[in-house]
Amino acid sequence: MSYFDVASTAPLHPVARQALNAALDEGWADPARLYRSGRQARMLLDAARETVAEVLGARPDEISFTASGTQAVQLGMLGAVAGRRRTGRHLVHSAVEHSSVLHTAERYAAEGGEVSAVAVDRHGLVAAEEFAAAVRPDTALAVLQSANHEVGTVQPVTEVAAAIGGVPLLVDAAQSVGRLPVPSGWSLLTASAHKWGGPAGVGVLAVRKGVRYVSPLPADERESGRAPGYVNVPAIVAAAASLRAVRAEAERENSRLHALVERIRTQVPRLVPEVEVVGDPVRRLPHLVTFSCLYVDGEVLLGELDKAGFAVSSGSSCTSSTLTPSHVLAAMGVLTEGNVRVSLPYGVAESDVDRFLAVLPEVVAGVRAPLGLDLAAPAAARETLVIDALGKRCPLPVIELAKRIGEVEPGGTVAVLSDDEAARLDVPAWCEMRGQEYLGERAAAEYGRDRGSAYLVRRVG
Amino acid sequence: MSYFDVASTAPLHPVARQALNAALDEGWADPARLYRSGRQARMLLDAARETVAEVLGARPDEISFTASGTQAVQLGMLGAVAGRRRTGRHLVHSAVEHSSVLHTAERYAAEGGEVSAVAVDRHGLVAAEEFAAAVRPDTALAVLQSANHEVGTVQPVTEVAAAIGGVPLLVDAAQSVGRLPVPSGWSLLTASAHKWGGPAGVGVLAVRKGVRYVSPLPADERESGRAPGYVNVPAIVAAAASLRAVRAEAERENSRLHALVERIRTQVPRLVPEVEVVGDPVRRLPHLVTFSCLYVDGEVLLGELDKAGFAVSSGSSCTSSTLTPSHVLAAMGVLTEGNVRVSLPYGVAESDVDRFLAVLPEVVAGVRAPLGLDLAAPAAARETLVIDALGKRCPLPVIELAKRIGEVEPGGTVAVLSDDEAARLDVPAWCEMRGQEYLGERAAAEYGRDRGSAYLVRRVG
């Protein structure tokens, strides 16, 4: 079984397993107690808090451990709006937040709060100026995810924080903590250990010093009065240990996973007819990609992929048991049916990804077969050959173009990706000389690259 | 180190450790997912729920797993009063509930609810009729612990439930689940796995079918909408496995622990001057005993006992870091200073208890030494020799009395415990014949026995 659903929960990191068992031996006692085993548990808890604080760029006393990411979001949001009650009762969040944010906002609205949801573009991306425009003098709190849990789009957190001025910003960083650096600008930050390879049962709520916070729950002296109940030291120790481990692995794994996801992003439209890859091609999580297949029931597709040995997810990550259309995809205005989210774990084998790409076309075709549709060939096959000449100096980009244009049928398109300025002149010139049609220049970002341009050529003959 | 603080947290049961590691292998995936590993996690979760339901005498769909006992209490209380809002906004609880109950009641009062605390007797025991007298037509909820967490007194839950009629009763069973059968009569029941040898991070909230419940938290589809956040399947599996295991051991261990606690209850007043053993001597948890030492700072005493190798607790179990006087002891009207709570784990060695009794007198004397007090001999030494003749047929009780009365000084008292009706006539008769003073008959319960009478004799010569 290839597990491609790390955005739901990551397999327990070996370091977490080790730390958990060690802490069950050494840190099982009540950290509030004054005897030796209690003091030992307290020391382990303090050390874990320092580790997490360091990774998040926070002070240890700004960190409270909660029972889950959802609880961190609920407490963070309700505590922050309660702390700012005198300022007003208005809440702003993006339209593509996790359901825990939306549900907490609904509860707030039911109790008299006013809520604005900021629209996103077709890639699920928030625009800082649009977000700022939704903020009012009576806005108590703004909420924005660091990256979207369904489509992987990385949000402009720092820009939004700057644009909204003094309004506290709660950043739901569940999908990025451990993988990407924490963006600056947050006033409150939430995360969930089981998303980064820690155990279940540990969330993080960070509240910057100076941010007004009034607990929405009955009094409890644990975790600075922010998270109630007995403190789960062994799980917290394991969470911190695995956070440190994944941060150390992140750079290497991220570029590897980024390339594997790029392969999926590129290949799926070439292999499967009537499919749409969604989410921002450039500002994206390294390990996550989502696509939607027209004419396909998502639940059936997931079942068939499961039989083929692939665990993937579909639709809104927290409503999959009901399989209602994802509010994220709906807000983006993209296809919501036949939705598949692939999120790759650290250490995934390249061959597993290739096997997925090999199996996917027949699985989708099998699900579609009873419909008796006559589908066109995959859109990408009709469209564009991408020649990646990034980093190559002229005349290499033009030489590649000349060598490979024969791979597309007449009428087909070639995109030459290049970051050499000379290509801007050379490609049109080559077209004129050889009687091919120059179609113009686009950002290479549209092809998932972070620099350079794409020069489009239609093969005429 | 002898760990005598199982009422704070029990060491992880070996079965729990084993089940935890197995479930980390087999049940780590998201139980809301439809692929194989998700379905497997769901099956393990369902099985754990059935186990817990069976032990609690509930239906599986009445059980929700929370993140802690405190969270179970908070959600249970707030959800139940919200569900009964139309009936009224009045809450009744005993004066000796856990701080999580008191804090939730405070929050309820701050938001417009009215709260009545029912007094207890000197043993910390609630009287069913007094509890019922506090209930009014607008009472939304009554809350009563199954057994007190500080002094071990077992409350008359079933009698209270019957006395208050249709008012829902929330029973905080944190200290008794796994050890004693669950009392009947509850409408809501809360518990905490780490108290019975399960892992931290698992609480239980049981809500009887038909009891109105409105979640006080934002919507979340997990755990019947009652407990938010990702479900911690491995910890829940471990909690259920250890619950089953401790229930199977309970009968044997309970009678052993009951006898060891009885030894502490009897010996401490004989060994330490100016000490008061508190809590009901008969209606009590098998493993827990609390005593208070006059002229002693509790924190200092705990520190000295820690140095001597004993981990014990003091005062209110959830405010020990502040060491404010325990609200439980205050409500009982007993001494609150120099308080020590001993709660014995399953499997504790008898020799550890004896070592505690050997060490305690000098530790207390050492703490008191700087005060320069001239303390009388231990009260018990001046008072009563207990002859346990329970189960012995006449004339054995009188023979024991004749043989042992010389052990007390003239003026001292002997209590003959007997369940043979003949003793009621024989002991006074023997006194008249031998010129000793017969003082009368008391319930053997006053000496911690569950049957028989105590016949008191003062040695005259």
From TrEMBL, chains A, B:
InterPro entries: Aminotrans_V_dom (IPR000192), PyrdxlP-dep_Trfase (IPR015424), PyrdxlP-dep_Trfase_major (IPR015421), PyrdxlP-dep_Trfase_small (IPR015422), TusA-like (IPR001455), TusA-like_sf (IPR036868)
Cofactor field: pyridoxal 5'-phosphate
Reaction catalysed by this enzyme: (sulfur carrier)-H + L-cysteine = (sulfur carrier)-SH + L-alanine
SUPFAM superfamilies: PLP-dependent transferases, SirA-like
Superkingdom of origin: Bacteria
PROSITE patterns, per the entry: UPF0033 (PS01148)
Record domain UPF0033: where: 387-411
Family: Belongs to the class-V pyridoxal-phosphate-dependent aminotransferase family. NifS/IscS subfamily.
Protein name from the UniProt record: Cysteine desulfurase/sulfurtransferase TusA family protein
Source organism (scientific name): Kitasatospora cystarginea
